[in-house]
Amino acid sequence: MTESSLTILIVDDATANLKLAKKVVQQLGHRAVLAHDGEEALQRFDEVQPDLVLMDVVMPVMDGITATRALRQRLAHTAQHVPILLLSALDGTADVLRGLEAGADDYLPKPINVAILQAKLRNFARLVENQRELARQNKELADRRARAEEEAQLAAYVFTHLTDREDAHDPQLRIYQVPYGEVSGELVCGARTPAGVLHVLLADATGHGLPAALSALPVTEVFHSMTANGYSLSAIAREINRKLKRLLPVDRFVAATLIAVDGAEQVVEIWNGGNPDVVWRDGSGKVTRFRSVHPPLGILPEKDFCSQPQVFTYTLPGELIVCSDGLIEAESPEGRAFGLEAVIANAAAEGKGLQAVVGAFEAHLGGGPLHDDATLLFIGLPQHSQVVSVAVPPQERVAASSGYRLGLCLGPSELRQLEVVPGVMDFLMRIPALKPHQGALFVILSELFNNALDHGVLGLDSRLKAEPGGFERYLQTRIERLYTLQEGKIELQFHLHNVEGGNVLDVTITDSGPGFDYGAYLREPLTHDRPHGRGIALVRSLCSELVYSGVGNSVRARYAL
Amino acid sequence: MQIPVQIENGRARLRLDGRFDFSVHREFRDAYMPLLEDNSVREIVIDLGRVEYVDSSALGMLLLLRERAQTSGKQVVLSGARGTVRQVLEVANFGRMFTIEG
Fold it and tell me: Is residue A196 located within the same domain as residue A344?
């Protein structure tokens, strides 16, 4: 640290003394400001705000002791300390003490000894310099703290609004969350596909606070936009992984549990990468655990990533319990972890599963601190298969459409690689006339397309699903056949045109399969009670016409806009 | 704290102790960085036998080591994890990225 130039106020009624002191001060590279008595000293002090004061004691008008007291009073409320050196010929112990008690820092005898004055000035200059440096550092620290607080507040705001979206308040979803700091690095999202399938995500990013929240941020947008477009759980997992891998440094990742609940089909899909076991507790009290079988998101490159979920079907109502490691690792004051077993045991309390677990968790903590974010999630799977309700907007009388056609023909490799329905929907939703009909169109398209693929091209029999363990076998066979598919195709035609003064969208889907006896099928009454074919019943209720043709391998659905 | 390193027949063994978390990240890096430049080292073994606790930032440090080791053509082996440490590695499915030995 180089000594910087100080402003030094010299107070003396004797001109010779003033001159001498001024010379010494200037030789040391400082600026000298002069005053001839105490009163003038106070005035000068206010004007120039000196770093140091050299003050004679015996002076007319106001003496040095009185002036020193007055200066100390003035400075009482500032953080800055301005050293005052008294110079006096009165050098008895009582005189020196009186000066020091008035607030002087040092007392030099007169006549002035130049060498001693120089040495004292150097010492005090160093003191002032240290004090300045300290003040600068304090200010920098305070600024930094203020900025960090502001950043954390912004992050907390954005994060709360991301997690507090309306669609996270799904009636099937109950959430308990405690952040470790101001911002949680754990995120819960819930949203439904256009066909009413509930998607839930619990994401837990490395670390806590702002960095963790930042890592979890890109996850929500992908989750919400892809769910809204009807993409499958595995497509969403794959896309989030791809995005995080690109955005995050190597040592950062996001443990995630993704769950899809299809209440109509009573099927649950679970993709667990790096989170504690997901617990399925059915109405009979039977507990099944789904462990993490994947690394967390953001680690594996796309080619090594496995997006395959675990799948199960349910008949009894019950609940899925999902928690973060922060919850099960949280320690009691004695250092014991809460544990998944405690979650399961307390969840058994009838009708208040989540509250019972939360109560036990808080008792376990015993008012002690958390060392990580903690999240607990209950997803209720209702008793009766719900009837999917699809919002159909009222028909509008709009100008006749100029009409358009879109045709697609998909062979084995396209059928393997593409998420056809969300992809096509993504395009259709760009047409303003179709946008309000997203839910209905998604259901129609996905039912008809899945029938064409599963039964037409892959030759799967839906009766298999009704057997015990049949659903899992059905899915497994589906994956195998799709993977090894050599030939077969599906053609999709979309025709938007005007019929009898109203706009209609005709969706025609033709597969290369052997078809089926649609005559008998269509004569069956429209009901939601049959275990299968529910989808087609729903499609029929949404469409003004549903016409099979050929050997039953081609179907045309007419939807009135 | 310094992390002891033993090199034998091209295998470098780093023996960690107690808590493996963000507080040891500098020591951990300082211990393995010279090994990456050492041509005689083909394999870096992280001995977790005396480790009682790992957190997610420790997993991050292992991933970073793995990437750096791959760049210098070396293998990373996680060795001797037990109890909760073993569980954490299993939940994160680190067996997919590392060789894990008993």
Answer: yes
> Nearest-CA distance from B69 to chain A in Å?
13
Tell whether A185 is covered by a domain: yes
Alpha carbons within 13 angstroms on the beta-carbon side of residue A371 total 13
Measured between beta carbons, the chain A residues lying within 8 angstroms of B19 are: none
Place of tokens 């106001």: A62
Q: What is the pLDDT of residue A398?
A: 55
Q: Does residue A58 sit in the same domain as residue A99?
A: yes
Q: Note the pLDDT tens digit of each residue in A444-490.
A: 999 999 999 999 999 998 888 878 788 888 888 998 999 999 999 99
Looking at the structure, do residues A326 and A193 belong to the same domain, yes or no?
yes
DSSP secondary structure code for residue A232 in this structure: -
Instruction: Report d(CA A312, CA A298) in Å as an integer.
Output: 26
In order of their start, the domains of chain B are 5-101 (3.30.750.24)
A394 within domain boundaries: no
Whether residue A195 sits in one domain with residue A258: yes
Distance CA(A356)–CA(B11), nearest Å, equals 51
Q: Is A308 left (phi over 0), alpha (psi -120 to 50) or beta?
A: beta
Q: Is residue A156 part of a domain?
A: no
pLDDT at position B28, please?
A: 95
Q: Are residues A247 and A304 in the same domain?
A: yes
Report the C-alpha gap between A240 and A232 in whole angstroms.
12
The verdict on A377 and A408 lying in the same domain is no
Tell me how far apart the alpha carbons of residues A526 and A543 are, in angstroms, rounded to a whole number.
Answer: 13
The residue type found at A295 is P
Is A281 in the B-facing interface, judged by CB distances under 8 Å? no
Q: Please state the separation of Cα A308 from the chain's center in Å.
A: 25
Helix (H) or strand (E) holding A98: helix A93-102
CA separation for the pair A324, A293 (Å, rounded): 16
pTM for this model (two decimals): 0.74
Q: With CA atoms as reference, report the closest residue to A313 among A257, A382, A262, A379.
A: A262
Cβ atoms of A53 and A72 closer than 8 Å: no
pLDDT at residue A335, rounded to an integer: 87
Look at B94 and A252 and tell me if their CB atoms are within 8 Å: no
Please tell me the distance in Å from B64's CA to the nearest CA on chain A. Answer: 5
Beta bridge partners of residue A289, listed in sequence order: A279
Q: Residue A60 belongs to what domain range?
A: 7-136
Tell whether A144 is covered by a domain.
Answer: no
Picking from B22, B67, B90, the nearest residue to A250 by CB comes out as B67
Q: Does A508 touch chain B (CB under 8 A)?
A: no
